[in-house]
Each structure stands twice: as structure tokens, then as C-alpha cells.
Write a structure and sequence with these properties.
The complex is a heterodimer of chains A (about 350) and B (about 500). With about 350 residues, chain A is an alpha/beta fold. Chain A is built from 13 helices and seven strands. The radius of gyration of chain A is 21 Å and the shape is globular. Chain B is globular, with a radius of gyration of 24 Å. Classes of the chains: A alpha/beta (about 350), B mainly alpha (about 500).
Chain lengths: ~350, ~500
């Protein structure tokens, strides 16, 4: 059955009922809700205005003049601050945080974002006391045509996902004894732990005519079953961008699905979303993911996560819904690069 | 510029306004159409109008020369030279890769030195021009004297990219006479456009995802899912191509030009022969007129074998026309075999139909035809003959008995409105035709005045069109608009 018309009808009914309810209660809650709605609307408008004023999203161009620029230093500092925040918040729950540097862009094909970014991420993790595993030498030793879907697309192939899963499995085995110390009541938990539409079950092609099946559980994670509470299995949360989400692979071939097969006594939770960066992982953790009570949190990162903190990237892709105003360095770079 | 884009809407609005503002001057109207068509074509690639112009001029000159002489040998020589020159471009740009592929050295040479971009729609307008000079040779029509009129007819943007392939005898005179359009014709044209957009944007584009998924990931899918994928492809192909044809007919109608109806419920056919009378009618007519009939005459001394041979050659060419790949040749030959079978068993099948209740005979025949079409679509859609065989081997395995994958099967629902409405409207002139329902008479009996009946009829139609437009807005595929599938032919 095509459920879209039914969903549309239900949504309209829900909105109408909600409207009636708000009118009836008329209390402080509805006033608060109205304020929040207005703030969200204002933010959306501000983001639209900013995207209109600053439409370009730079990536490699940020590093055209090397990594010694004031702008790149600023972005690196942001990365470090966000990482520090995430570390504190994850460790406060008793969970173990591990960073994994993962990108198919390795060896001869490496670009400046990773050439300059990866050493910085390694150094930052060392400074903050976060275990960081760099998979790029392992990937560089392999044939990119096997691990990825080049020339059609640079994301993981089925074999690539298995290769990555095999190496992530060593981390999971290493921390098999770690347990989070926090539990949440059912009433405290949000409806979703991830950002995919709950119960999504569709074919996508990403505009590349490479269709693949995406299935989300009712908790918004890319997996085929719901995570149950109180938890009886080990919970492992994968956070990351497309390298964890695995576009152009059906659910059963993603890195997380391969890991799930390897660890049937654990819940491997895939919260990866295309274009996310460290700022998104922090907000996702706070708002949703921590309530899944993970024991081990594996954050996939790479040099792109630093340049993705540039304000125009954030205004286009951030999950937070708040507007990002340009700093003096960003404004200067943008004007010099695009408005010369 | 696709028909279902804002850019095209703006373009067409400007053309329409200029066209009717100049209604007193046919030549100026043609100039507007020609300029518009060339601009429309140049949006795809700047070089395409140059190629089109060369084809137009070559065919115009050859037709004029053939028409000028009464010497049969000269006429025939000119025809053969003309056909060779005009079709050379099509053969080279579209098929050279097919024959050079696999021949080391030649392949690289062709790719580096002789590679020319294949103009979109080349198959369609090349066939139009070939038909035109053949008709002039056969004295079916006279050669068009006015180059502007002829160029406008060939390049006419509604049919330029994906047909219908216009027959010079019926369409060309329309570009010479004064353009007129009635209210009922405007209404019909809008109906065609609206329904065509629905077929393309809602049905074809949405199910294209499931089809693409099945054909690219067939290794991971069971037989029943693949079977659904193949049948969905048939619907996609129909919705996409007939949608395009409907829009083309509607656009031309608003400009006072009547194009042929290209599809008439092809999936209700009870034989493959009938299917080809209902599917891509303008192409079938073209093949019948310019390939099949001459072949039958040429091979007439072979008696029954003349039909067999002619059908097989015709469908071999038809396969190649649809695509430069061996899978298309196999597809064409499969249809050729089916047509031969039907031609040779006509009497026996007729006798059988008298013995079996007609309803059962018709339903069974229809199912057989659909299954055969499904079988042939596998070759039509697969990336290669090898892929097609793999897909078929999965369909004809025990996994056909397992339940289909839900996320593919659910795409069937997109087909239901199309099938329902086309079936309900099967007796209408076009899919949005409300005349047959005689709604005003049913509401108020036969007591109302004719003017009032007309007014009520139009009000109902406006509501219906709006409803379909809302449906398109709500349910069109919310991703990049897929290119019309048939553009590559």
C-alpha cells in the first residue's frame, strides 16, 4: 500500500487536533511551544537569508593557501572544542569514545583537507586523551576500485564495507567489557535516536542512478530492527557522515549491518548521515543518541570535518537548525574567494 | 529543456503568445516556430541545431530534385543517394560504437578521432525526413517548395525529440494553411498536457526508482521481485513515453497543429500484432510503410516466406532503432518471431477462438501477450544480453514462488491510478475526455439549454484538470527530474 496519502491525511488531522488541543489547554505549555515555534521559524528565515547572501560552500579552497591561514586555525580550534565537548559528554555516561579516521580519499588521491586535517585530528585526539585509529594507511594499501564504487561514485562498495567492518570489529572486541553507567527511563527517552525518518523504507538513487534500499527502524537509525530497552545486549553507536551511512549500498551491505552479523549479541546502531560533521555529532548525542545508552561510541571522522565547520556549510547542512553567522576570518575569506 | 520544467513553461508561453499574435501571417508564425524549435534544441547542445539544419537542407534538396525529374532511373538514383546521406549521420553517430566495440585499435580510434556527440532525437527526425523523400519519390506528395515551411515541420519542437514521427502527408500541409484552433480543441489539448504530465511526473518518475533498483541489483533479488520490477518497467516505459506523446500532442494542439495519437491502450492487446497497432503507432506506421511493405513486395516470389523474412528484417531494424546494443537486437528479433508465429497461425487461432468462450479466450490471450512483453522488456531494459539472461534465469527459478520484497512491491500502487483511469476512459477520444459521460444531461435531464450544458461541461473539466494538477504537485517524484527515458533513442 502506498501510505503517503494516508500519512498526509493523518498529518493534517494531527495538526488540526493539535491546534484544538492548544486552544483548549491555553496554558503555559502552549505559550512555550508557540515561542519555540516562532524561534524555529525565525532561525529558518535567518538561515535562508544567509544562504541567499552566502550561497557557496567551499571545501578544498579553504586550503588553497596552505594550512597556516587564520581561517583554518579557527576551524581547527572549533573542531577541537567540539571534540572536547563530545568527549566530556560521552564519558559522563561511562561509555567509551573512539575516533576512527576513515575516508576513501587516500594515497595518491589525497586532497588538502585530509593531508592537513588528518595529522591535526591525530594530534588533537592525543592531546585530549581520545583513542584515535587512523584507517587511512590500511585503505591506501588496497585497490580503490575494489573498496569503493569508482568511477561511478567514491563511497564504499560491498567489499569496502566488509573491509571497514573487519577493522572496526577489532575496536568492538577490544572494548567488550566497557559498560555505560547511565540508564534512562522510558519517559525520558526521545522518540528517535537517529535523524533518519522513522520507519523509512524506500529506494533512493542520490541523483546518480545508483538506486539503493534505505530502511530505518522506528528510532531513526539505519537498521532493520528496533533497539529494545531495558537493554540486554551491548550497545555500540556508530556516528559519522556518508562513510558510516553508506549511500549506494542496501541496508544489508552497510558497514553497520556487516558488523551486526559479526556481533549478534550486540546492537550496532548506525546514526550516520551524509554531510554531518563533529558539530552535528555533539547535538545529536545531546538530543537523541545518548538515550540509546551506548557502551561504545565510534565516531568516524576525517579532514573534511574541519573544513565542514565553515559557516556556509553549516547553514546548508547543520542539523541544529540555528543560523551560523560568519566570523571575521570567514567573511574575509568568502569575500576574497567569491565576491572579488 | 524538459517539458515538465518551469523553463519550458516560460518558453512555451512566449512562443504561444507570439504565434497567435501573428495569426494573420503564416510565414511569420512558422518563423516563430522554427526559431523557437532551434532555441529549444540548442538548449541540449549548441551543435544539435547545426546537425538538424544540415539534415533539413539535404532532405529538402533531394526531395526537390526527385520531384523535378520524371526520369525513373534518375529519381531512384537520387532517392538512394538521399537516403544514404541522410541516414549516414544516424548510423554513424548512433551505431558506430556498437560495431567498433571490441575491435581493439578501431575502438580507440573511433573514440578519439571520430567521436561525435549523438544528437538527441536524431532517430525521430531522421525517420521523418527519410519518410518525406520516399513519399515524394512515390508521388504520394509533392516536394514542399517553401524551405521555411518544411524546416518548421521537421524541427517542430513538440515532436522533435521523441515523436510522434510525423507523416508528411498529414502534418506538413498544416504548416501551410491558416492556423485555427477551437475552444473544444484547446480543452482537449490542455487535457492531453495535464494527463501527460501526470503520467510522466507521478507514475513514470516514481516507479523508475524501483525499476532501476531491480535491474541494477538483480543479483540480490528473488524471482518474484524481479518479475514485479520487469512489469513495472513496462508501465514506466508506457507512462513515460505515452506521457511525452500526450504532452507533445497537447502543445501542438494549442498551436493549431494536430499530431497523431501515438498510444491506444497497448496493454489491452490480445496479440502482439494488435499490440504494435496500439504502441508507438507513428513508428509502427513508419516501419509498415517504408520497410515492411517494400520488403514484402521485394520477396513476393517467396510466397509465405516473404512475410517471415520481411517481419524478421523489420523487427531487426526496429530493435536497432531503439538502441545501439545487442540486447535491443534480441528484443527486436523476439518480437519478430512472435509476429511471424501470429502471422502463420492466424487461421488456427481463429478456429480456436470459436471453440472457447470469447471472454476466456480474450483474457488468456491478453495475459500471454503481457507475459511475452515482460519477457522481451528484460532485454530492452537490461544493460547487456548477459544481464538479461541472468535476470531471466532468476525469474524462471523457484524463487519466483517466494514473496516479493515489500519495498519494491509497494511501487505497484503508483500504477493503479494510471491503469484505472485509462481503463475507465478507454472509449474516450483522450484520457481526460468527459464527453462520453454526458454529466450535464445526467444531472438535469435533457431539459437544459445547450449553452448551459457546455458551461457545466467546462466547469467540470476545469475542476478535473485542477484535481489532476494537485495530484501532480503532491505526488511528483521529489528528486531530480529523470530524463525522459525515450530521449536516448
Amino acid at each position: 500500500m502506498n501510505t503517503r496519502p494516508i500519512i498526509a491525511a493523518l498529518m493534517i488531522s494531527a495538526v488540526l487536533l493539535n491546534g484544538c488541543k492548544s486552544k483548549n489547554t491555553g496554558g503555559q505549555e502552549s505559550v512555550q511551544q508557540a515561542r519555540e515555534d516562532k524561534k524555529a521559524d525565525d532561525n529558518r528565515k535567518k538561515i535562508d537569508d544567509l544562504n541567499h547572501e552566502y550561497p557557496k560552500v567551499p571545501d578544498e579552497r579553504i586550503l588553497e593557501n596552505g594550512d597556516g591561514t587564520a581561517l583554518y586555525r579557527e576551524l581547527k580550534q572549533r573542531y577541537k572544542d567540539e571534540t572536547n565537548t563530545l568527549k566530556k559528554q560521552v564519558e559522563a555516561t561511562g561509555a567509551k569514545l573512539v575516533y576512527v579516521i576513515l575516508t576513501p580519499e587516500v594515497g595518491k588521491g589525497i586532497q588538502n583537507t585530509n593531508r592537513y586535517g588528518i595529522p591535526y585530528i591525530n594530534a588533537t585526539c592525543a592531546e585530549l586523551g581520545i583513542e584515535c585509529l587512523d584507517f587511512t594507511p590500511l585503505i591506501a594499501a588496497q585497490d580503490a576500485r575494489v573498496l569503493t564504487q569508482v568511477p561511478r561514485d567514491g563511497h564504499w562498495s560491498k567489499k569496502g564495507a566488509i573491509f571497514i567492518a573487519d577493522h572496526l570489529a577489532t575496536i568492538i572486541r577490544k572494548y567488550s567489557d566497557i559498560k555505560s553507567t547511565v540508564t534512562y527511563k522510558d519517559s525520558e527517552r526521545p522518540e528517535t535516536f537517529g535523524d533518519l525518518p522513522p520507519n523509512d523504507d524506500e529506494i533512493r538513487d542520490g541523483g546518480k542512478d545508483m538506486p539503493y534500499h534505505v530502511q530505518a527502524n522506528s528510532q531513526g537509525l539505519r537498521m532493520n530492527h528496533d533497539v529494545k530497552f531495558p537493554k540486554k545486549k551491548k550497545h555500540i553507536l556508530l556516528m559519522g557522515d556518508s562513510a558510516i551511512f553508506c549511500p549506494f549500498l542496501n541496508n544489508e551491505f552497510t558497514v553497520s549491518a556487516v558488523l551486526q552479523q559479526m556481533f549478534p549479541d550486540a546492537e550496532i546502531m548506525n546514526s550516520g548521515i551524509i554531510c554531518y560533521t563533529i558539530e552535528d555529532y555533539v547535538t545529536l548525542w545531546n538530543e537523541k543518541a545518548k538515550f540509546a545508552e551506548p557502551d561504545l561510541v565510534i565516531v568516524q571522522t576525517n579532514g573534511g570535518d574541519i573544513t565542514d565547520l565553515f559557516f556556509t556549510h553549516r547553514n546548508h547542512f547543520s542539523r541544529s537548525g540555528k543560523p551560523f553567522l560568519p566570523s571575521a576570518n570567514e567573511e574575509k575569506f568568502y569575500k576574497e574567494t567569491y565576491q572579488r | 529543456m524538459l517539458f515538465n520544467t518551469q523553463g519550458f513553461a516560460l518558453f512555451f508561453a512566449i512562443i504561444l503568445a507570439c504565434y497567435w499574435l501573428l495569426f494573420k501571417w503564416r510565414h511569420l508564425q512558422n518563423l516563430v516556430l522554427l526559431g523557437g524549435s532551434m532555441y529549444f534544441y540548442a538548449q541540449l547542445h549548441y551543435s544539435f541545431p547545426i546537425y538538424l539544419s544540415a539534415i533539413i537542407i539535404a532532405s529538402y534538396l533531394f526531395a526537390a530534385l526527385i520531384d523535378k525529374t520524371d526520369n525513373q532511373v534518375q529519381r531512384k538514383t537520387l532517392l538512394v543517394i538521399g537516403l544514404c546521406i541522410i541516414s549516414a549521420g544516424l548510423v554513424y553517430t548512433k551505431y558506430s560504437g556498437l560495431f567498433f566495440n571490441g575491435v581493439k585499435g578501431l575502438e580507440q580510434w573511433q573514440a578519439s578521432v571520430l567521436h561525435i556527440l549523438t544528437p538527441v532525437g536524431i532517430s525521430f527526425y531522421t525517420f521523418s525526413t527519410l519518410g518525406y523523400i520516399t513519399d515524394v519519390y512515390r508521388r504520394k506528395i509533392s516536394a514542399e517548395k517553401n524551405l521555411l515551411t518544411y524546416a518548421t515541420y521537421i524541427s517542430f519542437f513538440p515532436h522533435l525529440l521523441s515523436g510522434p514521427i510525423p507523416s508528411a502527408a498529414t502534418i506538413l500541409p498544416q504548416f501551410s494553411k491558416k492556423a485555427t484552433v477551437s475552444l473544444s480543441y484547446i480543452d482537449e489539448s490542455i487535457g492531453e498536457i495535464v494527463w501527460g504530465l501526470f503520467k510522466k511526473m507521478v507514475v513514470a518518475d516514481n516507479i523508475s526508482l524501483a525499476v532501476s533498483f531491480c535491474f541494477s541489483q538483480y543479483q540480490d533479488l528473488n524471482g518474484s521481485t524481479l518479475f514485479i520490477g520487469v512489469m513495472l518497467f513496462g508501465i514506466q516505459l508506457y507512462a513515460d513515453f505515452s506521457g511525452y506523446s500526450s504532452i507533445a500532442r497537447g502543445l501542438a494542439g494549442l498551436l493549431g497543429i494536430e499530431l497523431i495519437q501515438n498510444f491506444r491502450l497497448p496493454f489491452s492487446s490480445k496479440s502482439v500484432t494488435e499490440y504494435w497497432r496500439r504502441w508507438h503507432i507513428s513508428l509502427t506506421n513508419w516501419f509498415y510503410e517504408y520497410i515492411y511493405n517494400p520488403l514484402v513486395v521485394t520477396f513476393r516470389h517467396l510466397d509465405r516466406w516473404s512475410i517471415v523474412l520481411s517481419l524478421m528484417i523489420t523487427f531487426f531494424i526496429s530493435g536497432l532503432w531503439h538502441g545501439a546494443g545487442w540486447q535491443f537486437v534480441v528484443w527486436g528479433l523476439l518480437h519478430g518471431v512472435a509476429m511471424v508465429y501470429e502471422a502463420l497461425t492466424r487461421k488456427r487461432r481463429k478456429q480456436l477462438s470459436k471453440k472457447v468462450p470469447s471472454f476466456i479466450y480474450n483474457v488468456c490471450s491478453n495475459i500471454f501477450v503481457l507475459l511475452f512483453l515482460g519477457f522481451s522488456w528484460v532485454f530492452f531494459r537490461a544493460a547487456s544480453v548477459g544481464d538479461a539472461i541472468h535476470i531471466l534465469s532468476r525469474i524462471f527459478s523457484t524463487s519466483i514462488l517466494s514473496s516479493p520484497t515489500q519495498y519494491v512491491a509497494k511501487y505497484i500502487t503508483w500504477c493503479l491510478p494510471l491503469i484505472a483511469i485509462e481503463w475507465i476512459q478507454r472509449n474516450g477520444e483522450y484520457s481526460m475526455d468527459m464527453q462520453q459521460w454526458r454529466i450535464p444531461e445526467r444531472i438535469t435531464g435533457n431539459t437544459m439549454s445547450p449553452q448551459r450544458a457546455v458551461w457545466i461541461n467546462y466547469s467540470i473539466k476545469v475542476c478535473l484538470y485542477l484535481l489532476v494538477c494537485i495530484g501532480i504537485y503532491l505526488f511528483y517524484k521529489k528528486q531530480d527530474a529523470a530524463e525522459y527515458y525515450y530521449f536516448k533513442f
